[in-house]
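Hi C.,

You asked whether I'd gotten around to modeling the 115-residue construct. I have! Everything is below, sequence then structure, no commentary in between.
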Amino acid sequence: MGGRLRFALLAGEAGFEEELAGFLGRLRYSRGDGPAKGYRHGHRERQLTGTFGTETVRVPRARIEGEDGKVAEWRSKALPRYQRRTKKAERNVSTTLRSWLLDFRLDLLRLALVG
């Protein structure tokens, strides 16, 4: 893995940490002011696929207490649940599929015309 790619992945992981700190209202290992909105409990690894290939990123985990008192898992808004590909990779896949289908249709048309 290249240095730039690793740096970009580490920056993304730092962004997830900041997102969680903003949600909880306190930094890691800080007590904060007032009652806690939730508690950190480790990290989970997520696979992210892009034009660079498939890489693993660490996303922080936290338990949060909702308005109704129920405890739920915190989810990052930057990396939605079940999203495995970056937006650019999604575009590349759809463009490739469209061009393949167009070629296939043109082959069928040639076959029908030439016979």
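If it helps when you're writing up: Strands lie at 38-50, 53-65, 71-73.

Thanks,
B.
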